[in-house]
Amino acid sequence: MKVLLINGSPHKKGCTYTALKEVADTLEANGVKTEIMHLGVKPIAGCIACGNCQKTGKCFVDDRVNEFIAKLPEIDGIVLGSPVYYAGASGQITSFLDRAFFAGSGKFEGKLGAAVVSCRRGGASATFDQLNKMSGGSAENAVMSGNQLSMLV
After folding, report:
1. Which residues contact 22 (CB under 8 A, 6 or more apart)?
2. Whole-angstrom distance, CA of residue 41 vs CA of residue 124
3. 98 near 140, Cβ under 8 Å?
4. 17-72, pLDDT tens digit by residue?
5. Which residues lie closer than 8 Å to 69 by C-beta, 6 or more apart?
6. Which one of 34, 49, 117, 132 has the fewest beta carbons within 10 angstroms of its own beta carbon?
7. Sign of the torsion angle spanned by Cα atoms 56, 131, 108, 1
8. Which stretches of 1-153 are DSSP H helices?
9. How crowded is residue 55: how many other Cβ atoms within 10 Å of its Cβ?
10. What's the predicted TM-score (pTM) here?
11. Please, which residues have CB within 8 angstroms of residue 30's CB and are 6 or more apart in sequence?
12. What is the Cβ-side half-sphere exposure of residue 28, based on CA atoms within 13 angstroms?
């Protein structure tokens, strides 16, 4: 089993990374392979609904989204990580996921999903809601949830 953890923070080794690393270490200790993908600091464009991906299987914008889609066949689970910006997920991960779920349509079936968020004050529950709806918003995705919110304050 392999889980891909997505760091949606512009800070490669910041608080969101720390939370994802804790998840990765726990999974590794239980025999699950992991990989952390940092989205980076380059802008990630939103989806323009051109439909190119429906014809080619990838987005016409060649960036981290296409790298992610290419990894989907080899992974069993996805953990989304984001800082909380104004009671929502980062723009980086939001644009990334909008395009990834559209361009990778059909490739998420049977994948498990979870989310971790990093916040200073409030907005964690709204951000969880956003990420969980994105990762579990269609019939082809399953969302893992626990008794507690996976939040780093």
Report:
1. none
2. 22
3. no
4. 999 999 999 999 999 999 999 999 999 999 999 999 999 988 999 999 999 999 99
5. 57, 58, 59, 100, 103, 104, 107
6. 49
7. positive
8. 15-29, 52-56, 64-71, 91-103, 124-136
9. 9
10. 0.87
11. none
12. 11
